[in-house]
Amino acid sequence: MAALRQHRKRQAEERLLAGPRYADSGLVFTMPDGSPIHPNRFGLWFRRRTRTAGLPAIRLHDMRHSYATAGLAAGIPPKVMSERLGHATVAFTLDTYTSALPAMDKSAADVVAALILGTEEARGSSPSP
After folding, report:
1. Which of 36, 46, 53, 123 is the most exposed place for a label (fewest CB within 10 A)?
2. Are 103 and 73 in contact (CB under 8 A)?
């Protein structure tokens, strides 16, 4: 809330500076003259900032994929991730925005192997009866 209040204050200052040239679009985030920000501009800003930070090139939308995959890998329930991403179904989230990480794949293989072989990894740290 504090960030939005600060943004509104900055926007009011920009409105005063622009005077009659200010286009009141009713949007929260605008150009300094009040006009809407073209969606492509966000991608441009993102590319500039990642390049300046020395990060590898990635599309802004790819951040959603990374976010979903990292969240699931960290154990966040798929339903929670689906809701956070604003999806109608968990299936859409799992089918579209995630990919198996090599570590996740190895972990799954280890768990299944332990279950089949009846080793301690499958039962956790508790001793067998």
Report:
1. 53
2. yes
